[in-house]
Amino acid sequence: MVKEQPGSKPKHYTIPIFIPGIACPFQCIFCDQEKITGRQNLPTPEEVLQTIHQYLSTIPGHGSTIETGFFGGTFTGLPLKTQEMYLSLLQPFLKEGSVAGIRLSTRPDHITPEILDFLK
Ligand code: SF4
Q1: Residue 63 has what pLDDT?
Q2: Per DSSP, what are the bridge partners of residue 120?
Q3: What pLDDT, on a 0 to 100 scale, did the predictor assign at position 7?
Q4: Given this model, what pLDDT does residue 6 score?
Q5: What pLDDT does residue 45 have?
Q6: Is the minimum distance from the CB of 20 to ligand 1 under 6 angstroms?
Q7: Nearest CA to 39 among 13, 66, 14, 70?
Q8: What are the φ/ψ torsions at residue 44 (nearest 5 degrees)?
Q9: What domains, with CATH codes, occur in the chain?
Q10: Is the pLDDT of residue 8 over 80?
């Protein structure tokens, strides 16, 4: 539950969607995505939508900037169809303005001009 303090400044919120390290090319020694994300499988579309709705119901909308973040493993390493599925889930929220933007995890060898064009 997120509470707004009286007289507080506009806040920035990021709704976290955790992607385990399925798309990572290997497991880096300092990073255990299974422990960090607490999951072994990709979240289902229903889980993503439920998470977003739950967060939106507790974040004060007025004066807040709300983003959704795909954190954890390498989002841009997922198959394009899977990325597209997740990103399309967010389009209605972007259109209605309840979510202002999308953050996502990547790594230098999983970001190319083609991926940037796709994400755009
Ligand atoms: S999320 Fe990044 S740092 Fe962690 S295992 Fe995957 S590639 Fe390595």
Answers
A1: 82
A2: none
A3: 60
A4: 60
A5: 97
A6: no
A7: 70
A8: -75, 160
A9: 12-119 (3.30.750)
A10: no
Q: Determine the atom of ligand 1 nearest the C-alpha atom of 72.
A: 1
C-alpha 36 – ligand 1 centre gap (Å): 11
17 lines ligand 1 (CB under 6 A): no
Q: What is the pLDDT of residues 36-55, one digit of tens each?
A: 877 788 999 999 999 999 99
Residue 86, judged by CB atoms within 10 A of its CB (0-12, 13-18, 19+), counts as: buried
Cβ of residue 24 lying under 6 Å from some atom of ligand 1: yes
Q: Using the mean position of ligand 1's atoms as its centre, give its distance from the Cα of residue 63 in Å.
A: 34
114: its two tokens? 């083609």
pLDDT in tens, 49-108: 999 999 999 998 778 899 999 998 899 999 999 999 999 999 999 999 999 999 999 999
- DSSP calls for the chain: ---PPTTPPP-EEEEEEEE-GGGSSS--TT--HHHHHS-SSPPPHHHHHHHHHHHHHHS--TT-EEEEEEEES-GGGS-HHHHHHHHHHHHHHHHHTS--EEEE---GGG--HHHHHHH-
